[in-house]
From TrEMBL:
The chain crosses the membrane at residues 20-42. This is SPOR domain-containing protein. GO terms for molecular function: peptidoglycan binding. The keyword Membrane applies. Signal peptide: none annotated.
Length: 284
């Protein structure tokens, strides 16, 4: 049984009124005709291990009416968000063309920020389990649509003690902010996955979590300058913007500009969060 209780192919029919394979084939063939968009697929990254997400079946963390900011319960946890990488480009325009083609078929895709190698990646997803990401990858490979695509699992770590070590002391406001940010990333990933599956998804919880992050950041803004706090404040700004974008996207179609902006912002926030903890680990 899958997360949503039915197979990828069955949910594809529910979402698009057709076969998922056809939707992806049409999208990528269209992209090829625009200039060989998939001709520059990366080979330097290895497929990520596809493991179930810890806490996937846990409660949402809301007590009381869904979306009520005063009722949000923060439940931080380490987890993974899974994607299928279908392209990486030197040209941001080429990446945007592929995202647009996929969005036209209501396939949720996102662009990453340009990385240190000057590449902009395109992901299909997110998926909250490696199983679903693997099924979509199999479809792409079996049909020859994207034979070099591979799964990517972005780790969302939760190790506040490592951050506190950089500050030199425990900071309750930073702790609260880290808790809320981690929980936000989990709930936002689940929100996008539900929307992509054609299921209802209320953005109220994400708005509430975004408010928690923003309030913690406001209290930290006057704190003594510290590398960890400075980086957290940057993440808090990104999360606040993303929460506002998701609130707008809640009433927009998955292929819309509003939805795409929210999706791109979420992926950017995920990568910056990952770098945040990687930097802390390297400094120890």
């Amino acid at each position: 049984m899958h997360r949503f209780g039915r197979s990828v192919q069955k949910r594809a029919n529910d979402r698009w009124g057709g076969v998922f394979i056809l939707a992806v084939v049409l999208a990528v063939v269209g992209a090829w005709q625009l200039g060989g968009v998939l001709g520059n697929l990366l080979g330097e990254e290895k497929p990520a291990a596809m493991e179930p997400v810890p806490g996937l079946e846990e409660a949402t963390g809301i007590s009381g009416p869904a979306g009520s900011p005063s009722q949000v319960a923060i439940v931080p946890r380490p987890f993974q968000v899974h994607f299928v990488q279908v392209g990486a480009f030197r040209s941001e325009g080429a990446a945007r063309n592929l995202v647009s083609e996929l969005a036209g078929q209501q396939v949720v895709a996102a662009m990453t920020p340009r990385n240190a190698m000057g590449l902009v990646k395109v992901y299909v997803g997110p998926f909250m389990s490696g199983e679903e990401a693997g099924e979509v990858l199999d479809v792409m490979r079996e049909t020859g649509v994207a034979p070099n695509a591979f799964t990517v699992a972005l780790d969302v770590d939760y190790a506040p003690e490592a951050v506190m070590a950089m500050t030199g002391s425990a900071n309750p406001d930073l702790q609260t902010g880290l808790d809320a940010l981690n929980n936000y990333l989990y709930e936002a990933g689940a929100w996008f996955a539900r929307r992509a599956a054609g299921e209802p998804a209320d953005g109220g919880m994400l708005v509430a979590l975004g408010q928690e992050v923003r309030q913690a950041a406001a209290r930290l803004a006057a704190a003594e300058e510290n590398p960890a706090i400075t980086r957290f404040l940057g993440l808090a700004d990104m999360a606040s913007v993303n929460a506002a974008d998701i609130e707008v996207a809640a009433s927009a179609a998955p292929g819309s500009e509003e939805f795409q902006r929210a999706m791109n912002g979420y992926v950017s926030l995920l990568e910056q969060y990952h770098n945040f903890y990687a930097a802390d680990a390297a400094s120890e």
